[in-house]
Amino acid sequence: MNDEFARQVARYGDDPELHDVLAELCALTGMGFAAIACVTEDRWIACQVLDQIDFGLTPGGELDVSTTICDDIRKTQRAIVIDHVREDRNWCTHPTPILYGFQSYVSLPLKLRDGSFFGTLCAIDPQPRLLRQPGMFDELERLAHRAEDILSARIEVDRSTEHV
User: Fold this and answer.
1) Each residue of 78-135: pLDDT tens digit?
2) Three-class SS of residue 158?
3) 44-51: strand order across its sheet
4) Cα 71 from Cα 149, distance rounded (Å)
């Protein structure tokens, strides 16, 4: 990990409940990589990771934020779901799926209880996945809200102990 901020983000993610959220996300979608990422204007830092496809990221690891779709989510505060990159006219020539080698993608914004943007709950897979099924988005949102609650509680505890 490069610095204290990255270590702090990884500490926030060091929670078995967050790992369970990622396991549930992978089981629900059939995708092999899921992460909770802290996304700022200039950084993408893995908070918690479940990597079953050898993508290679661990908590505290970073991607160049400008190469991520999560940066678009930070800017728009809207979820993005892609079943099959190669067959989606909006994404088939986008540099991010080409760079990272994925064909399916889902990412939802994560906001803390105070309303601030934390980052994203995201998943990728090198294979296409049926993500736009009835009820799927509701389940994805449920997982995102669960992650938001867990992160908010951890960050609130961290901040309260700083002031003691």
Assistant:
1) 999 999 999 999 999 999 999 999 999 999 999 999 999 999 999 999 999 999 999 9
2) helix
3) 62-63, 44-51, 33-39, 117-125, 104-111, 80-82
4) 22
On whether the CB atoms of residues 109 and 58 are closer than 8 A, the answer is: no
Alpha carbon distance, N-terminus to C-terminus of the chain: 27
CB-based contacts of 127, cutoff 8 Å, min separation 6:
103, 104
What's the per-residue H, E or C state across 88-106?
A: CCCCCCCHHHHHHCCCEEE
Give the residue extent of every domain in the chain: 4-162
Q: CA 76 to CA 5: how far, in whole Å?
A: 24
CATH 3.30.450.40 applies to domain 4-162: yes
Average pLDDT, the chain: 94
Q: Are 151 and 105 contacting, i.e. CB atoms less than 8 angstroms apart?
A: no
Q: Which amino acid is at 45?
A: I
pTM score, whole prediction: 0.93
**Cα-flanking dihedrals φ and ψ of residue 42, to 5°?**
-125, 10
